[in-house]
Amino acid sequence: MNLLNLTTLYPDEESCKAKWKEFRDEQQIVCIHCGCKEHYWKKDKENYECKQCGYRQSLKANTLMHGSQLPFRYWFVAIHLLLSAKKNLSAKELQRQLGHSTYNPIWSMLHKLRRAMSNPHTRHQLAKVVELNAAASTKNKK
Questions:
Q1: Tell me: the pLDDT tens digits for 12-30?
Q2: Which candidate, 65, 87, 109, 136, has a CA 20 to 30 Å from the CA of 79?
Q3: What is the pTM of this model?
């Protein structure tokens, strides 16, 4: 996926939130208080509410985005730029690309992403859409 495709698929904050909610729903939300795996989605509060104890948690809770005030769209673009860059992506360059006024939250976001990518205990799994090089797949057929 290139940057134009990303901005077409996720043109605004609401589309990014919807995709992140879809992802979280697939992963199954677990209540950090009681361990219950059944939740209600509180649309007006944009939170999950535990069916057992009533504890609420946001879409960003217990993820890399936990505690971040940055928009979901920043995270989507940052992940895309970090994974598609041929060379290292600096926090200053990411700040410039996102048009964000302050450096520290962007630096923190980038380092959370890098730490997650380099953690050997993180499960890295290809799922859903996987892109293949057309030349490589043609070569394998011969």
A1: 999 999 999 999 999 889 9
A2: 136
A3: 0.80
Look at residue 133 and tell me if it is in a domain: no
| Lookup result for tokens 């909610």 | 21
CA distance 75 to 118: 18
pLDDT value at position 60? 94
Tell me, what DSSP letter sits at residue 51? Answer: T
Residue with tokens 């996720």: 10
Which residues of the chain register pLDDT less than 50? Answer: 124, 126, 136-139, 141-142
What is the separation of C-alpha 82 from the centre of its chain, rounded to a whole number of angstroms? 12
Q: How far apart, in whole angstroms, are the C-alpha atoms of residue 100 and residue 94?
A: 9
Instruction: Kindly state whether residue 33 falls inside one of the protein's structural domains.
Output: yes
Domain of residue 97, residue span: 3-117
- State the Cα torsion 4-10-13-15 to the nearest 10°: 170
Q: Is residue 109 part of a domain?
A: yes
User: What total of structural domains would you count in the chain?
Assistant: 1
* 14 within 8 A of 72, measured Cβ to Cβ: no
